[in-house]
Amino acid sequence: MIVEVALLAGVYFIWVVSLVNSMVSSEEVSLTVSTLPFVLTFPLSLVLSAVLEPTLPGAFVVDVGLTIVVGVLLFVRWVMAIVGE
User: Fold this and answer.
1) What per-residue confidence (pLDDT) applies to 37?
2) What would the pLDDT profile of 26-37 be if each residue is shown by its tens digit?
3) N or C: which end of the chain has fewer CB within 10 A?
4) What is the pTM of this model?
5) What CA–CA distance (Å, rounded) separates 48 from 8?
């Protein structure tokens, strides 16, 4: 269980760094590169939180909530980049 929690915390850390990087990106190529870690680690976080759900109730709900928040913020950043062109 400790390994799964550590991996999930690592995924969330990657999401935070990716989110900060995308907010300071000035061009679409760097925005694409900064969004890629979120897209690649999204399935891993769902699997890890589903594995943790029996021993840590609410882990899946927290993961889905964080996914929605980060996804919406990245979507807004993409819209701002497209409108700014």
Assistant:
1) 92
2) 787 888 888 999
3) C
4) 0.86
5) 6
